[in-house]
Model the fold of this input.
Amino acid sequence: MHGESIKKSKGNFMKLNRFLLVLGLTAIGLTTASKKANALTWTIGTNSGMSTSVNYYHGQSFTPNVSGPSGLGTPGATVSLQSFTFGSSSSGNLYIYSNQYSGTPSGLSSGSGLIGVSSMAVNGTYNFGNGGLLLSSVSSPFYAYTDSSISSLVGSNSYSGGSAYFTSNSSSIFANSSTLDWNFSATFTDTPTQAVPWNIEPRLGVALGLPLFIGLRMLKKRRALKNSSRKVHDLTSVR
Done:
């Protein structure tokens, strides 16, 4: 009878041990998830242009960590482009290049250095989907070009991280003007790729520590049960 009681206690102990393990792993998972959710968001751009340019294909170079006159937030270490706008009249798609594009608007989809294409503009904004477009560097220049003719404001070179490009028709190459910038805005995010599981909030600290404390207590109890089982076995053997 005593042996059956010991076996039952061992079974209950193993069930509790599995429960504590699941509880501890869940708490660690919650901690990790909370760290991964801490993403930075910032914008760059300029809105100082006052002259309206009608029916031009637009281009603008930009550098993610150069905020410009209308930029907001602090740039992160890694960078994903979320959206880009030249104003409410933007249309078509926006093509992002890692180098200056020397072709025409009609050839944007196959140019050397193309790294991403937006969805169709909605309310003047070009979006790059869930997660955005991952860029290789926060401090390198990139180049944005439209495949549609649009109207927006242009002004003197107030944005130090890039300059304007333009052409009047789809079969002419984009020309650069180092003294001008289009009014533009770009939004970026920086989501940390490494979670820091030891930076634990108090409530999660309790969730992690309590199972460990109970587990240690149960380990001592299991050792006591083993000792008791040996004594019973020894007594039975003597009889």
